[in-house]
């Protein structure tokens, strides 16, 4: 009886769809390093079949431009003329379509891309072909992937429409080289869904023919993705999508510390009364923690609502709900904050996202760290007799070490602080301190 032919394995096939939020930085003739706002996003879709892939990748950044001169936003137009326009809200979008072929491994591709960048504020759209490489994620937790594409010639046309310009009604060719790049990683949530996060954007590498134009639009992002229509190797991944989490062996811990030294907005080093207390509850693979940080420091530069010889007392509270994402005490989650101050601002509340590497208090030595980004409801600021309502943002960080000599008690030391700013404005509020204290593992 003849042997039956071997069953041929189906080729790789899958559809990846992704969308996320980005906080980018826009730098060009119109925007001098302006941070994007809440309507900025990244999105992509890739269909891989056999050794081929078709992909569309999109990044769109909205920003509120600010006046660079007494009369408004000053810039050099692509025809070489200098113009001033009122401050505006603008959007810059880059989208490219790719045809790729796998090389070396099933997840590494080389490809051709057609890139288009466009704006809503008068800068010319440019288009061009490029070549590059892309490493698709294999969806192991925190595996590095991304792409780099080079565009030797991106071309467009600028039409001058300013009646005051001597070039009104004339068109000018614009040429640039460009580099589009992405570095990212993913965190599988199930076989079909995942978080992804990283840093991407594009850079114009050379000047145009009529005026010097160098543009950079880059920034971090975080989002969610899904994998559909999976067959072949993409469907046979029982181990690569498994999420291994930390399961706590103790119910939590409490701790307290005193702070010293430090950096403060318009003030000197921290003085007595700077301290912090906190507690963390660890039910299985989750973590809930709360921390109160109090600052006391002399005021030295005459901030509103203070006197040159007075002192400032700030309080910053964080409450975070976290879920374990690896077996190494690494957690991601959401947080809430409350802040009170005496330096001109009213009390503030807000929500945020972030992550933490919690200490391993079963070990003799351990490290810890956290990073959270919060946005707040409008805060009232009184200065020079004027009341201003501001939506403020806070980047809060913490890192340090623990030492548990024996039993459940331990000592710890670290550095905690935050940076605050209004919308897209530069950082105007800084608080930080070195601290040391004792804790008890429950």
Write structural notes for this entry.
With 442 residues, the protein is mainly beta. The chain has 2 domains: 13-234, OMPT-like (Lipocalin); 252-441, OPCA outer membrane adhesin/invasin (Lipocalin). It is built from no helices and 26 strands. The chain has strands spanning 13-22, 25-27, 34-35, 41-49, 52-64, 73-76, 82-85, 89-103, 105-119, 126-135, 144-159, 171-188, 193-204, 216-231, 252-264, 275-281, 286-298, 311-324, 330-340, 348-357, 365-376, 379-383, 386-390, 392-403, 409-422, 429-441. It has a 10-stranded antiparallel beta barrel with strand order 1-4-5-8-9-10-11-12-13-14. It has a 10-stranded antiparallel beta barrel with strand order 15-16-17-18-19-20-21-24-25-26. The chain has a two-stranded antiparallel sheet with strand order 6-7. A hairpin with a 6-residue loop joins β25 (409-422) and β26 (429-441).
What are the defining features of this structure?
442 residues, flat, 0% helix, Lipocalin, ten-stranded antiparallel beta barrel, 2 domains, mainly beta, ten-stranded antiparallel barrel
Q: How many structurally independent domains?
A: 2
Structural class: mainly beta
Taking pLDDT < 50 over at least 5 consecutive residues as the criterion, the unreliable ranges are 208-213, 302-308
Cα Rg: 26 Å
- Architecture of the largest domain, according to CATH? Beta Barrel
In short:
The chain is built from no helices and 26 strands. With 442 residues, the chain is mainly beta.
